[in-house]
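Action item from last week, closing it out:
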Amino acid sequence: IAWLGLGFHPFAKREDLPWVPKLRYRVMREYLPTRGKYALDMMLRTCTVQANLDYENVDDAFQKLRIGLRLQPIVAAAFASSPWVEGRATGERSRRLHVWTHVDPDRQGLLPQLWDGPAKYERYVEWALDAPMFLIKRGGTLHENTGQTFRAFLKDGFEGLVATHADWETHVNSLFPEARLKRTLEMRGADGQKVGLLPALPAIWKGLLYDAQTRAKAEGFASRIHYDTLEAARPAIANDGLRAELQGRSLQDWAGELLELAESGLERIGALDAEGRDERVHLAPLRALLERGQTPADELLAALPDETPDPRALVEVARF
């Protein structure tokens, strides 16, 4: 058995993989393909690494959420690490990012309706209320309910069932935006990574969002990004990684500026290890990649340039 630091299974076809026997997965595997052509790939063949962040109060949560939604594709470009599908190099830096643009527009994406206007967490709640449900659980019984929003369920019930707080938690867990607000704030945009780069993901988000001065600068940085141009650039980001362009600048430039902000935040926070180093040390591998204009996928492809590399060699370069 080998664990691979990739965002997409490099060998398996959909039919090769077993399903986890969870009640909601049966509903999802039937419903989601009606909403997006790669929904089953999302469930079966993708892998992310998340950074889960704390927040002080609802205002702090919404500010961090809004920044996270705007910046997610830039961070995702820097961590792109899924260049192979079914044993073959696709030309993409991140097949996983491509998949996630074709899952379910009702419950995925960058949530542009939250980008501007009042900074109130209730706006996230309003979005979640108007998203379609998957199911309702009562004891060990699953009631499929894919035709009703949670708002309608609150108002009208469903087949004699009345909404509970547990139903709301189940529903919120069925929503998949690029940044998700729950008991923690989940940054969900990055591909799975090898061990050397794993600490860089929480480090970059901590640096951007845990220091108030840097967070204000990150908010200003994020405000320069326009939803329409970012959404239009997402296919190129999945394909080209840091070489893609956004609003006339390369993703390498955007990501480099973002990394400098994160480094300044970590320096200001000043959390030191036993050797007296602050947490910028965790960003050093990412900085080395960015300075070369490379993503993790570029490094992997350079190590295995053949279109159909030897599977054993692929495992060795991608494993933990």
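Closing note: The radius of gyration is 20 Å.
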